[in-house]
Amino acid sequence: MKESIKNFILIFSSMLFLLSLVYSFTRPKSQEAYQFHAYLRNTFDDNGYNVLKQGMEQAANDYKIELSFSVMEEDGEQQVDLLKQEVEAGVEGFIVEPKQEPFDFNQAITVPFVYVNQQELVDQIPVVSADNHQSGYVLGKEMLATTNEQGRVLVVRPKVLYSENSENYVGLQQAFSEQQVAFDEWIIEEGQIDSLIQHLSEKKDYLGIVSLSLELSEALGKAKKQEKTFENQALYGFGLSNQLLNFIEQGVFQGVGVSNQFAVGYAAVVQLMSQVSGEYQRIPGIDTLFITKENLFDTDNQKLLFPLIQ
């Protein structure tokens, strides 16, 4: 009896050993982390952070993805050469934030792409962006709702607009058209704001000034604090930075349209992973807000403005 039990245990142990060997040779290899690379307009702002980048980093951490970053090149051919080198090094997908018009990558690069903050679909490449047209429309409506006066609006813009700011502009114009409000356009080179200050010292009856550039918004805010010529002028803009939030809190800016760039970055990584893996992934929604001094510290707004703190 004891001998039979010993034989049974020996046979059972041998079978377990054989099964473990078979499993070790036949089981699927563990999935190595995907390697993605993101090319952004700027990897950091003046305060040392980038909300779009933070959203991408959070998604990469959640989904165990190796994600690296570089700044977009100005020259298209040089950018394509860099992409080819990345593919040869093992990169499996790219996220690209075009500075102006998107480069024609599709013919040269075979791995999946995702564009962020781009106006429309390019060569069937997926685009992840907030509804910037709606953001512009809402800002225009909210600005006009604060006054019963008749007059014109001044739109200040750089010579070259990013795609999302072009959409903001279209939304603004729709709001102005519906309310039958005329507007002037002032194109300004980066950092050259003196001519605008002079213009405002001569013409002070604008209903409000809207900036279509984060950099211009910050420059206008600083000028408003220093120049008495338009210290009572209502200012509006688009984008997010610590400086701009401070201007809102101080009452220097009356309102700012903000898109959830953290969600844009997060969704871009999820979208790219879905393309590479061939598996459906739910893409999170992307919100936009109109931020004023009155709603700056609302709980929901704070979650959008400071997503990593919540």
From TrEMBL:
Leader sequence residues: none
InterPro entries xref list: Peripla_BP_I (IPR028082), SBP_2_dom (IPR025997)
Superkingdom as given in the UniProt entry: Bacteria
UniProt xrefs under SUPFAM superfamilies: Periplasmic binding protein-like I
Domain Periplasmic binding protein as annotated: residue spans: 45-279
Pfam families xrefs: Peripla_BP_4
Record protein name field: Periplasmic binding protein domain-containing protein
Gene source species: Enterococcus alcedinis
Taxonomic lineage: Bacteria, Bacillati, Bacillota, Bacilli, Lactobacillales
